[in-house]
Amino acid sequence: MTNKTALVTGASDGIGLEFCKILAGRGYNIILVARRKNKLNEIAKSLSEQHKNIVCTVLSNDLSKPQAAQKLFQSTIKNELKVDLLINNAGLLQNGFFTELDLSTQEKMITVNILALTSLTHLFANDMANRGGGHILNVASLAAWLPIPNQNVYAATKAYVLSFSQALHNEMRAAGNGVSVTALCPGYTATKMMNNPDQGAKLSVPAGMLQSAQDVAERGIKACLAGKPVVVPGFANRATAAITHLFPKMMLANTAGSYYRKNLQ
After folding, report:
1. Which structural domain range is residue 90 located in?
2. Which residues are marked as active site?
3. What is the pLDDT of residues 164-197, one digit of tens each?
4. For FRET with 10, which of 60, 110, 157, 235 sits at 20 to 30 Å CA-CA?
5. Any idea what DSSP says for residue 112?
């Protein structure tokens, strides 16, 4: 029996790396996508040595570049790779005051978090539909559920991912093409995103509030393969998402803004 194939963007660390490890353990061939080719080669070698029955393919790609998604899709065709599971995990984050953050950096964040994700979803959803089915997992965030001052563009991009994925999930079901779309909305997760000098200020969060990247990835994959439209890992995070429906948006923004400005370093 031929292994199924998963393509994971942002595969070099964090949740993306955990996606690769989990899926390799499930017998999926893995297409690893990120900017750092050497790092991806190391991961591919390690996964292939641990799981002798899978094939790992490295496709180095910077999704902030023009036509990056189209070039990545063409690379899969050129290499005769048929993707059964697409995980749009790559994402950028910026913390700080909107007017003080570099504009080009924020534009790059919008490109990766929204444009590249949308383009990859369109390209692979059509390919999957033509082949009779597949799964797409779009990584949003708990931030998608509320406006967050000092992280406003990031939160807005994730709100797009959540809304887009929910609507597309319905469309795919109505079309009956066998393609399912799931939005994964993790809360604070123990990855380099919590302390990365390239993304502006650091947000200080108590260790007890952090989920493990492995747990987030496990729950995301399980929900995606089950065809669920949305998954919010963790009881506290699900409670937070539910609470956002009970209060006015500006009240939520005021509360979030106060918290973030207090904890940004």
Report:
1. 5-263
2. 154
3. 999 999 999 999 999 999 999 999 888 876 566 6
4. 235
5. I
Phi, psi angles (nearest 5°) of residue 26? -90, 0
Number of compact structural domains in the chain: 1
- 54: domain CATH number? 3.40.50.720
> CA-CA distance, 82 to 224, in Å (whole number)?
18
Sheet with strand 5-9: strands edge to edge: 56-60, 29-34, 5-9, 85-88, 134-139, 179-184, 230-231
Looking at residue 195, what is its pLDDT? 64
Q: How confident is the model at residue 198 (pLDDT cuts 50, 70, 90)?
A: confident
pLDDT tens, 54-104?
Answer: 999 999 999 999 999 999 999 999 999 999 999 999 999 999 999 999 999
Sign, CA dihedral 100-101-102-108, equals negative
Residue 135 pairs with which residues in a beta bridge? 85, 180
